[in-house]
């Protein structure tokens, strides 16, 4: 334990989410500006307890928590990483540069949700002073462990400001999000699109229907054990087809079904009464229980059907979002093709600290050039709106 004199906090590092009380952690999350189900204690614990994000897979937890007496005032999920997989903000070139100069880039420090490129709160804190003290404690932990660097990914606006105040370097990437308008149904949504985009979506949906594919949508506790098992077959097969084992273990989804069922919606594609594909969408909920934000997460298929991916991962979820009054659908990392489905470009944020002064200076110059490129890219994308011109 380490005393933080200016704020009278005690810092504790936790080698497992189970070392932090779940209700205390979730209470912090509930008071943040951009909470999501992915930083809930249950989600992080499932990643750890299922063996998906643990030291042997390159994710060594060292969660940083700040206490006053028995009260938790701030916390974040810090991992000591032995690689850069599962992050979606790419720093392979930085690691290669270190190696070429005979320096060790790994282990590095990472504040993020493993395998989950969803923007949201990362530095959970009761107030701004606690947040700054938390960031100071994270940096002190990285220095004490002689880590090469610290990376905080997919930050909320409040986190971005805290990192800027602490002198960390900013980096930006682009995602594509769908935002709700006053569309009463999917047809009205289509009518708002330019003619070529509208025509293409109708053609793609028609191909799936003419192939005899029908969809079944199940939510929350209505997702049966058989549904979850079928989904995992699809998810695992997709990874295996690309030559990799899946990041997430089967037990992770067992824990999601048990501990966070209210945050999942499953779309199952069936043909001749047999399931052939599925997509899994996560949702955050308003205090009244209604869905507020949807997140496209996982997909897989056992049979190939033309345009089935678009139907399962975009059109069915968007139709569900319109029907349920969802404010936003986030399509995940990268994917300029999503603009044709009315997902618009959004800037996402990360923050970085490097211990080596010369490399820090070089990375800062690189980020300035990269930032200019991102700004031009966004300007270019904004001129390609899929919506009808007024």
UniProtKB/TrEMBL annotation:
SUPFAM superfamilies: Acyl-CoA N-acyltransferases (Nat). InterPro entries: Acyl_CoA_acyltransferase, FemAB-like. It comes from Ramlibacter algicola. This is N-acetyltransferase.
